[in-house]
Structure formats: C-alpha cells, structure tokens
Design brief:
binds zinc ion, TIM Barrel, 19 strands, Metal_Hydrolase, 12 helices, binds (4S)-2,6-dioxohexahydropyrimidine-4-carboxylic acid, 430 residues, five-stranded parallel beta sheet, alpha/beta, nine-stranded mixed beta sheet
Length: 430
C-alpha cells in the first residue's frame, strides 16, 4: 500500500512530496521516484504537515455511558481532530480497573481502527480511592496500560497515592492525578473569586489544586516515580511545577484548550456548557497557562474531551455534569491562543500536541519526526481556513461545545494513521 502526499509543508517549512510505503515514510523530496502506478495521491496543496496528534486525556464513555459517546464516535471525533492516538480515561461503568475492561477498550479501539485507543487504568478499585487496583496486571495485560488515573476524582489519601507512585516506579508507568483536594471543593460550582461571589455560586479555590500538586511532587520525588498533572488550571500551580522540575522531580503537566482560552467571565448566563472541572478561571490564569506552555513548564495540551448527552447538560447549573467536548476544536484553539500570538511555531505545536504526549504516554511509534524511516502518523492542517463551530455538526451524540458559534482558525484537512487516511476534508474515511 503506497500513499504519495504531494506539496506538503512539514512544520510549515518548504514544500515537499512524501512517499509512504506500508505505513512508513520511505522518501521525502520533490517528485519521489519509487511510487508504483496504484499509489494513492493526497494533494496537500501547500498545507502544514504535523505528526499525528496525541491526546493524553479523553473520555470515550464506553462502557456504560454510550448515550454520551462510544469508542466508535469518539474515534471519529479524534480522527477528524487530527489525532492518531488517544488515552481513554477510566471513569466508565464498569470502571477500567481490571485487565478485562481495559482489554475490551483497547480491542474495540483497534476494531474501529481510526485512532489508537490506549485505555488509562484506574489507580484505585472502582476509583473509590481506598484500595489500589491491580496496576501490574493491567500493565502486563494485552492493553499494555502505561498511564493510571482516577480522573474525575483525585487520589486524596496520601498513603494510597504514595503506594501508587511506588508501584508506578517499579512498573515504569505514570500516575496521572486529577489534582483536587475534595475537602476544599465540597459543594463547589465555580472558580472561587469575584464572579462566583456575584453569581452566588460556591467557590472551587485554586489552592485545592496547588496543594495537591505540591504534595504529589514531594511523593513522586521520594518514590522516583513519574507523575503527570492533569488539566492545570491555576497560575499558582505553575510555580509549584517549575520548582519541582528544577529539583529534578519526574513531573509532567497538561493544560486543556479551554483553560487556554475561556474564563469564568462566561458564567454570567449560568449556561452549564461552561461548567467543567477544574473550573474556568480568570484571565490572569489563562495568560499564565499560555506562557507556561510556551516555556515548557506545562508540557502538553490534552483535551479532557468530556461528552455529555443533552439530558446531563441542558439542566440547571448545580446538577449539570462538568465537562466539554474538545477533540475536534483543540488544534484550532491552540492555533488561536498560541500560534497567532507568536507563542508557539509549528514545531512547538508538534511538541505540545504530539511529541511530548507520546513520550509521556510511552508510545514509541507516535509523536515521531516527519522523516524517512518513521511511521506515517500525520496530520495535515490548513492554517488559513476559518470555520464556525456547531455542536450538532461535531461527531457523536453529544453537542456540549463551549465554542458554539465561534469562528476559529485552522482546519484539519487530513489525518493519516500508519499510512492510511482516516479523515479527509471533514469526513471520516472508513
Ligand atoms: O469536567 C470534567 N469532566 N472533569 C473531570 O475531571 C471529569 C470529566 C468527565 O468525565 O466528564
Ligand atoms: Zn479530571
């Protein structure tokens, strides 16, 4: 199987033709010589070519939440968004806390074949926080789990967290923490600050994130383990991460597209589409997120793609579920918040949306350079395109995008997984 990508600009640089043979890049140049007659042609029209995007944090809802998303619909969203690998969080029903469940998720992803679906295993049984799940069994299962998280909930108990990190060190896996001191966020409905006070919503203090991250960095240092901090939202957390990294702690961190762009100023209308955990914070926080991502204190962008069917979202603020769609809008939001202001170039986008996520998730065939001999996991982007977001036009049964009606820059023209086109011109290629 041969694919010829004509007139593509890797990382925005000079245009080249790229020949892909059996899933591997075999020639890069002008007018490759080795293309057989039945070669499939992808005319890239001078667009920007990036390595396929890798998302460390998505919720695919299967098993148990199929009214909101399935592994199939989430795979569609991923391919359309430029992704070639995603990590599926374990807050499913049943929870992804045994080899049986993680193997099911991995197998279902492979059957669909649009994106590599890597299940994240739960840290604790049932994500209840009291007893460790069988991390080693999940790691050595056919699902080859490399990241463990109780995401949706924080691993609160420092004794459990310490033990999880010790196992993680021995197994060479990562613990991804949803950093939220639940005692400090009881009843919380919005970022604790002026907006929440005015709206009469109970506050989620930024210190509930910062204190857990500080504690976990100390525990990770002692255990010699790899800690990953999910969805950083507070500028104070950045100072903790910077200090821990300077000490050599094995800590990485992600920021979501919505925490790069949106603030709690959007809460005035009490529209639950803006409800998310951690909550939207202030303009000072979004600005600090952008700078930390440019600097590398925050390593990656992860979507926290969190589909919720309308019955869970179109309800009053207090009972609506937290979470936002992200897979099909993330690259555009990163272009808008990071590329347009000059904080990242295309190499930088590749770093935070593909290379570093693949390193953290331990995926040797993802996030690779666009070079001869490398696997052809690719994402072709038209940087000059503009599009208007419509939730109902996005893949899957949920429409909870916070960007409804917004015009965003940059469109994914094609996604290539191991030499096979999985999405093209906004349509999935089955
Ligand atoms: O907003 C969120 N939604 N935050 C989480 O931690 C979980 C997620 C979900 O599963 O919907
Ligand atoms: Zn979370």
């Amino acid at each position: 199987m041969t694919l010829l990508i004509k007139n593509a600009r890797p990382y925005g640089e000079d245009a080249v033709d790229i020949l892909v043979t059996d899933g591997v890049i075999t020639e890069i140049g002008t007018g490759p010589t080795g293309a057989p007659d039945d070669t499939e042609i992808l005319d890239a029209d001078g667009h920007v070519l990036l390595p396929g995007l890798v998302d460390l944090h998505v919720h695919l809802r299967e098993p148990g939440g199929e009214e909101s998303e399935t592994i199939e619909s989430g795979s569609h969203a991923a391919a359309l968004g430029g992704f070639t690998a995603v990590f599926a969080m374990p807050n499913t029903d049943p929870v992804q806390d045994t080899a049986v469940v993680v193997e099911h998720v991995r197998r279902r992803g492979a059957e669909i074949g649009l994106v590599d679906v890597h299940p994240v295993g739960a840290v604790t049984q049932g994500r209840k926080g009291s007893q460790l799940a069988e991390l080693g069994t999940m790691a050595s299962s056919a699902a080859q789990v490399r990241i463990f998280s109780d995401d949706g909930s924080c691993v609160d108990d420092p004794v459990i967290m310490r033990r999880a990190l010790e196992y993680a060190s021995a197994l060479d896996v990562v613990i991804a923490q949803h950093a939220e001191d639940h005692r400090l966020t009881e009843g919380a409905q919005a970022h604790e600050g002026a907006t929440a006070a005015r709206l009469g919503l109970a506050g989620w203090p930024a210190t509930a994130e910062e204190t857990i991250v500080a504690r976990d960095c100390a525990l990770a240092r002692e255990a010699g383990a790899a800690l990953h901090v999910c969805h950083v939202s507070s500028l104070h957390t950045i100072a903790v991460l910077r200090a821990a990294k300077a000490q050599g702690v094995r800590v990485s961190a992600e920021v979501t597209p919505h925490h790069l762009l949106l603030t709690d100023g959007r809460l005035a209308g009490y529209d639950p589409v803006n409800k998310v955990n951690p909550p939207l914070r202030t303009g000072a926080d979004t600005q600090a997120m952008r700078e930390a991502l440019a600097e590398g204190v925050i390593d990656v962008v992860a979507t926290d793609h969190a589909p919720h069917a309308h019955q869970y979202k179109d309800t009053e603020w207090a009972v609506a579920r937290p979470g936002m769609l992200g897979l099909q809008t993330s690259l555009s939001v990163v272009i808008h918040t990071m590329v347009e202001p000059g904080l990242l170039d295309w190499h930088g986008v590749a770093r935070v949306m593909s290379e570093r996520p693949a390193e953290i998730g331990n995926l040797p065939d993802q996030g690779r350079p666009i070079a001869v001999g490398e696997p052809a996991n690719l994402c072709l982007v038209d940087p000059d395109a503009q599009w208007t977001v419509r939730g109902t036009a996005l893949a899957g049964p949920s429409a909870n995008t916070p960007y409804e009606g917004m015009r965003l820059p940059g469109a994914v023209v094609a996604t290539v997984l191991r030499g096979r086109i999985t999405a093209r011109d906004g349509k999935v290629v089955a």
